[in-house]
Each structure stands twice: as structure tokens, then as C-alpha cells.
Amino acid sequence: MKKQKAFIYRCSACGHEELKWLGRCPECGEWNTLIETAVNPAGRPGSGRQADSRSIPQSIPLSSVDPQEGSRISSGIPELDRVLGGGIMKRSAILVGGEPGIGKSTLLLQAAAAAETKGRILYISGEESAGQVRMRADRLGITGIGGGDRCDQGDRIEIVCSGKLEEIETILEAVRPVLIMVDSAQTLYTAEAGMAPGTVNQMKYCSFELISWVKEHDAALFLVAHVTKEGLISGPKTLEHMVDTVLYFDGAASAANDGDCRFLRAAKNRFGSAEEIGIFTMGEKGLSAVEDPGLLFLVRREGAIPAGVATAAVLEGSRTLLVEIQALTVSAKGAMSRVFSDRIDSGRVSRIAASLEKHLGLRLSDQDLYINVAGGIRIQEVGVELALACAIYSARTGLPLPSGTVIAGELSLTGEIRPVRRLSSRIKTARGLGFTGFLGPVSEGADTAPTEKTGSEARAAKDIKTAIRVLFGDK
Fold it and tell me: What angle, rounded to 10 degrees, do the helices at 346-360 and 385-397 form?
């Protein structure tokens, strides 16, 4: 009888398998990606945990499913619960991405200590030693050394410093934790996915095995992932499809809070809204939640407002934020004008500039546009477009906007100002922070249109020409 081969060749880029080595993968076309991989005794590579042939999956009626299987665990951090949609969903996998040093490990360690559960929590570190993790925990006051008040929370956190999948699975079966923190996904490896650790195939295979484990048990998984210089999670895009929630952690310096500001966003969320944002400040004791941002993203200045500055009321999930939009126009240094904007999409800035040039006759084609948002927050909501247009107009003409005025509205290509959601809430937030004027769109909805009940200074404009006339008069 012919002896069965003990190994195969698997592509580290797409996972394609061949019985013999090839220089180029026939599936994805990549060169030198076929890696020698051991075959398990069952002759089926990549099986992970051995399947029990006696257990046959059975379908069950939906009405007989226990509703408690879809319950949540509070992380103990209100801003994290807000982004997750109300807490950590059981049997879910959460991917957390961010730049190096942004605070991903700190966030996970604080969530492990503050989570409202009596179960055990397993922290898997493939990048740091146990001593280094303990030093961070002492700095955050988690272990209770020296009379701290969170000693009991530190006792329930167990740590393992390994990236080998087989060792991690053995510990999972022995500990049976309710929360699993993996720092990071790039450090996971197994011999069944190839000999070289850190490859795309290793990352996909090991992550799938851990996700499968939490789906079969009453637990939840956090995976930390690094990001590329473009700001996207490194590795295959399929890793984002494998998990239930994808969170991005970024930040910027903010003088309003005398510290570094951190923003937690949900790029994908199967169990909640993907529009929510969590705001933190980084200090000596770790991350602190900012429950009421208030004037966090506004610049406090005395005297008149300079030209090119407008205050916008934008929605971030269920909250209304007031942000300062700053615009600067200078003569183009080349044959073509350019747009420099990293906090607002440059395509949106170009579209707003084209609308101003078309409907107001404001020449911008020979100008370089520089757009900034005070505080470093990234704005994606359409309600910022009218304020952005007013800031660009002010910067180009040198005319400052009236002080104490907040602007919100969507600007169409025809120059019309379209209604935005929850306009009455934006007006209420602006008045609560001391602003006396508000400019918004005309709306037929009674719950969004500026009326006499919101104050005489809440004015409406149907198009960009009317908005500029209301703000600047006949200047």
C-alpha cells in the first residue's frame, strides 16, 4: 500500500493547498508563498480541535432558544458600552485596532478589571511578559498593591504569555473564562497553519479557532490588531468579516482637557449602532471616560472670531457635539489647486468648494484649501457641510462669522440646504453651551424645523445664497 504523505504545501496568502511545491500559487498568483505544512493523523490539515464523529449537529426551533444566550456583560466603562451597543455580547468576537501606543492594551486591561461579571477573565499576551503586564496593572491601580481598592478585581484576571494556539486552547478548556483578551492577533501561531509565524494564514487560522471556541461556550473574545500606515487593520480583510464587532482606536492632542484625547469608533457592529463614538482622555491612571464632551472640541478665545472659523453642530451616535471647523485658503503653488484635509474627507471638501464657486461666483480653483477640525476629531456626518462652506467662504473673503453662532445643514450640488436629523436637539445643545444664534435648513417636520419656540435667533435658509446673506448681510 502506498504510504500517505505526512505534509502538504499551503499558500500563506490565500490558504490554497498543493501536494507538491510550486513557485507560484495557482489560486492567488503570489510567488514563493507555498509553505510546507504538517498533516494531522486524520489526513485532513487545518482541523484544529479533533471533531467528534458521534456528535451530529441538530437544528432546533427558534422559539426554544434561551433568550439569555443573547444577554450582555457590562464592561464597567460607560463609553465602551456605548460603542458596543449596551455592553459586551456573550459569544461574540470584538476586534480592536489602533496605532502603536494609542492605548489598546490599556483599554483591554481596564475593561478586564471593571467588567461586571463573576466569571474568570483570561488575558493572553504574546507581546509582553507577565512582569510587564503586572507593571501596567500596578500603574492603573488594578492589582491593589499598596492598599489599592481594586485588589479583588485583579485576583480574577489570569494571564498567559504565549502565542501558540495549542497551549492557549488547553488553558481555555481548563480555565473556562467568560472574557478572553488576546494581545495581539499578529502574535498567534500554530504548526498546522505553516512553519513561519505572523503570516496572514496564521492570523486567519488562529483567530478562527478562538472565535469558534467562544461561539461554543458562554464567553466573549477581544482581539487586538495593529494598523497599517493608512490607518486600516493590517492583515486580510476577511478577519474583519470573521468577527462581530470592529473597533478603531485613534486620538489627538486636545488643549481643552490638558491631555491626550482618544476616540473609539465602531466600523462594524452586529449587535448595535456603528455610528456611536466613545471619548476618553489618557492620563497617569490610564483612560478616563468623557461622558459629557461639552466644550471639549471648541477653542476658547477672547475677542472677535478670526476669519475662516465656523462652529458646527454634528451628531455622533446619540450625542450632539459642537466642533470648530477651521479653513484656510492660499494661492495654489502649482498648476492645480490641492485640498489638505485629514479630519474631513477631502472629496467632500472639493465638492463644497465646487458648489461655492458655481452658485456664489467665489473663485477657489486657483486656491489651495487647508481644512482642520479643532480637537482632532474626525467628522463624517453630513450636517457639517453647511458650516464647512461658511468657513471656506469666510477664509476666502476675510469676513469673520458672527460670534455665538452655530451652523448645521447638508449642502447639495444644486446649492440647496437639505434637512438634517434631530435639528431641535442640535439647537438645544448649542443654547445649553451659551450660543445665542443658530443657522439651519428649512424643514417641514415640526420636530426639526427652527421655530419661535427655540428662540428668535434660530434662523433657517433654503440655499447657500440665503445662508451667506443671513450671516454676512450685504458685505
Answer: 60
Pick the CATH number of 309-472 from 3.90.1640.10, 3.30.230.10, 1.10.10.10, 3.20.170.30: 3.30.230.10
**Whole-angstrom Cα distance, residue 250 to residue 235?**
18
pLDDT the model gives residue 232: 63
Using CB atoms within 10 Å of the CB of residue 360, give its burial: 0 to 12 exposed, 13 to 18 middle, 19+ buried: middle
Task: Tell me which fold the domain 72-289 belongs to.
Answer: Rossmann fold (3.40.50)
DSSP 303-341: SSPPTTEEEEEEEETTEEEEEEEEEEEEE-SSSS--EEE
- Matching fold, domains 72-289 and 309-472: no
Name, in order, each residue with C-beta under 8 angstroms of 302's C-beta and a sequence gap of 6 or more. Answer: none
Give the angle 361-362-365 at the CA atoms, nearest 5°.
Answer: 110
Cβ neighbour number for residue 370 with a 10 Å cutoff: 17
Radius of gyration of the chain (CA): 27
At 381, is the secondary structure helix, strand, or coil?
coil
Element (H, E) at 466: helix 464-472
For the chain, domain boundaries: 7-38, 72-289, 309-472
Question: At residue 329, what are phi and psi to the nearest 5 degrees?
Answer: -120, 130
User: Do the Cβ atoms of 309 and 267 come closer than 8 Å?
Assistant: no
> For residue 111, what pLDDT is reported?
94
User: Grid coordinates representing 216?
Assistant: 461554543
Give the C-alpha separation, 115 to 153, whole Å. Answer: 9
Mean pLDDT per 10-residue interval, the chain, length 475 residues: 65 80 84 78 45 59 70 91 93 91 91 92 93 91 52 74 93 94 90 76 90 92 81 67 91 56 90 88 87 77 87 89 95 89 94 96 94 88 96 96 94 95 90 91 55 59 94 75
